[in-house]
Amino acid sequence: MFNIFSDSTSLMYETDDLREASPATVSRCTVVHFSSETTHWSSVFECWVRTAKSRWVITTAGLRIWEDLVRDIFGPTIKFLKNECSTALLTDVGHFAESANEVAPGIQEVTTFIRFLSALLDKALLRDEVEKKSEMEGKNEDYW
Residue 79's closest CA among 42, 126, 53? Predict the structure, then answer.
């Protein structure tokens, strides 16, 4: 039999329903769209907060400051962006195409913020690195 696809060929499927998809198919999905009724930007940040203390050396008070900052700033900012701004790539496509490509408000902004914040925290407060340094300093003190 003749194979018309090369080894590097990828197929892309678009669907509005994954009810009949197997777990293997879903696990290979690159992008899964969630509507604003399904998820909220705050759930993305809350998930990050739940894992933050195990990944970085952060106090509860430090996390509380981040939570207050996000709650006070992101809500009004996302509301402003949704009501007063338009995505640059969707300015000339018309209302139907724009609404079809709409992502739940705030998801992209909060995800980007989390990525930046995580990168900064990785540089200075990564738990594994801080513990290694602490152990090395402790060993050096015992040695001296």
Answer: 42
8 A C-beta contact, residue 78 and residue 109: yes
What is the pLDDT, as a whole number, of residue 27? 77
Instruction: Name the pLDDT band for 140 (thresholds 50, 70, 90).
Output: very low
Q: Are 142 and 134 in contact (CB under 8 A)?
A: no
Q: Is residue 138 pLDDT above 90, yes or no?
A: no
Query: Are the CB atoms for 126 and 56 separated by under 8 Å?
Result: yes
Residue 110 contacts residue 74 (beta carbons within 8 Å):
yes
- The conformation of residue 7, written as its DSSP 8-state character, comes to T
* Among 73, 16, 65, 11, residue whose Cα is nearest residue 42: 73
**Least confident interval from 44-48, 98-102, 112-116:** 98-102
In angstroms, rounded to a whole number, what is the distance separating the alpha carbons of residues 49 and 121?
13
Does residue 73 carry a pLDDT above 90?
Answer: yes
- Best CA proximity match to 33, nearest among 80, 92, 103, 97: 103
Measured CA angle at 42 (ends 21, 69), to 5 deg: 155
Q: In the numeric block, which tokens belong to residue 23? A: 């777990």
